[in-house]
Amino acid sequence: MKSLIQTVVLVALSTTAAFASGWGTDWEAAKAQAKKENKPILINFTGTDWCGWCIKLEKEVFSKESFKEYAKDNLVLMEVDFPRKKEQSDELKAQNKKLDKEFKVEGYPTIYLVDAEGKKLSGDIGYREGGPDAYVAHLKSLLKK
């Protein structure tokens, strides 16, 4: 029983820490947060340690302060990662595989805006040139529709 409680506490803390850093990895927590805060989810299917376009997008857009500021106030960020070197729990791997199949992802990065129920609000956004300001402007235009 004690180990079960410790596991639940560790999962809760890691989920809270992930969202505090910007990108969460727990799909159910992302949907709950989106519903609570009435925000769309930006779901990022990525290969953080091997996908060149994913790394470029992270470096040019997602790591920039102007994107982070916009996201903090307007989005719930959800990362669905398929790394080759980074360790993941079996639960996270299973969740990510299920989401990959559900969203019919064919390549990386694949990025969608979705509502709190997981319904797509946009087509695949993917990598876009122009840096964080252009990316944010595109997200805003998609959300107006």
TrEMBL record:
Residues 1-20 form the signal peptide. Residues 10-144 form the Thioredoxin domain. It holds the Pfam family Thioredoxin_7. InterPro entries: AGR/TXD (IPR051099), Thioredoxin-like_sf (IPR036249), Thioredoxin_domain (IPR013766). Transmembrane segments: none annotated. Keywords: Signal. This is Thioredoxin domain-containing protein.
